[in-house]
């Protein structure tokens, strides 16, 4: 496949719930040619029937279901001799929590808008080697209710994300990618009427992908997350994360302008919070 077809979506993408199910996929960090525009849409669902505290399962915990959609628009251009990508991400979701001796809780709406700008510090098509950095700002624009904080599409706080990625091609049609992501959170001053503070999170990811046909490739993503300790009114509510997740995706290029991707993701281990699995469909229009 030519570079314009292979290169689609770069950078991090977190739902306002911070579950990051629509996060980066294999080959997202291969830059498209300057002048390329991409409009992408995501539709997905995830569910959890288990919840953990300090690595131990909480018996009788509520079940959680999330359905989400995402609009994402990107533009590639040249700046000071480097390829850059500007993007805007608008998530929307409906989260439902029920069971566990609690009344059913549900909220639907637009999530927090993400604004990002990636720059490829090294971009070598001949060796298929790429190094990129992308800062994001997450705006507290999403629908939020302090009395329904855990199912709100918005987070009621500012945050910033820094992504660093390395890509290296090998063999005839395979790629290895590594990514480090750092997120710093502002305060949520209305978390059920209290103040929620969250320590910075660190996410490390590794990707492998290979072509099945000239228009189809399969990919595997491993993700580890740590940090994110939470305090409510100064008291520790949740310790740092130590979570592992595996995702597999199948991507097919319909033609030069249209691409489809199907993903399945499964949490392998969760230290604190719900353990999710889910599916996601992504459509990208390239022009």
Describe the structure.
The protein is globular, with a radius of gyration of 19 Å. The protein has one helix at 3-6, and strands at residues 37-53, 56-57, 63-79, 82-99, 102-110, 114-124, 129-138, 159-170, 174-185, 188-191, 194-198, 201-213, 216-227, 230-232, 235-238, 241-253, 258-269, 273-286. A hairpin with a 4-residue loop joins strand 16 (241-253) and strand 17 (258-269). The protein has one domain (3-286): Autotransporter beta-domain (Lipocalin). Residues 1-19 have low confidence and may be disordered. With 287 residues, it is mainly β. The longest helix is centred in the first third of the chain and has 4 residues, at 3-6.
What share of the residues does DSSP label as strand, in percent?
A: over 45%
Major sheet details: 12 strands, antiparallel, barrel
- CATH level 1 class label: Mainly Beta
Low-confidence stretches: 1-19
Provide the structure class.
Answer: mainly beta
Q: How much helical structure, as a percent, in the residues?
A: under 10%
Helix and strand pattern = HEEEEEEEEEEEEEEEEEE
Q: Say which CATH homologous superfamily is assigned.
A: Autotransporter beta-domain
Number of strands: 18
Taking Cα atoms only, what radius of gyration do you get, to the nearest Å? 19 Å
The shape is: globular
Number of domains: 1
Average pLDDT taken over every residue: 90
C-alpha end-to-end distance: 16 Å
| Secondary-structure arrangement, i.e. CATH architecture | Beta Barrel
Number of helices: 1
**What's the CATH topology label?**
Lipocalin
């Amino acid at each position: 496949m030519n570079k314009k077809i292979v290169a689609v979506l770069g950078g991090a993408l977190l739902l306002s719930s911070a579950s990051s199910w629509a996060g980066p996929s294999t080959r997202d960090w291969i830059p498209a040619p300057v002048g390329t525009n991409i409009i992408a849409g995501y539709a997905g669902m995830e569910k959890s029937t288990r919840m953990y505290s300090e690595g131990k399962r909480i018996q009788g915990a509520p079940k959680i279901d999330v359905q989400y959609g995402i609009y994402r628009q990107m533009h590639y251009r040249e700046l000071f001799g480097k390829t850059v990508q500007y993007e805007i991400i608008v998530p929307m979701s409906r989260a439902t929590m029920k069971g566990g001796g609690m009344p059913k809780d549900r909220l639907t709406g637009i999530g927090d808008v993400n604004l990002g700008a990636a720059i490829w510090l090294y971009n070598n098509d001949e060796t298929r080697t790429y190094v990129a950095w992308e800062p994001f700002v997450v705006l507290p624009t999403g629908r939020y209710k302090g009395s329904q904080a855990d199912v709100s599409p918005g987070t009621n706080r500012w945050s910033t994300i820094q992504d660093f990625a390395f890509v290296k091609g090998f063999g005839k049609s395979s790629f290895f990618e590594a990514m480090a992501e750092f997120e710093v959170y502002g305060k949520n001053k209305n978390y059920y009427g209290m103040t929620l503070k969250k320590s910075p999170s660190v996410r490390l990811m590794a990707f492998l992908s290979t072509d099945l046909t000239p228009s189809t490739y399969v990919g595997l993503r491993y993700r580890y997350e740590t940090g994110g300790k939470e305090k409510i009114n100064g008291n520790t509510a949740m310790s740092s994360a130590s979570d592992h997740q595996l995702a597999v995706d199948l991507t097919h290029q319909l033609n030069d302008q249209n691409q489809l991707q199907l993903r399945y993701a499964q949490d392998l281990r969760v230290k604190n919070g719900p353990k999710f699995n889910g599916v996601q469909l992504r459509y990208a229009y390239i022009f």
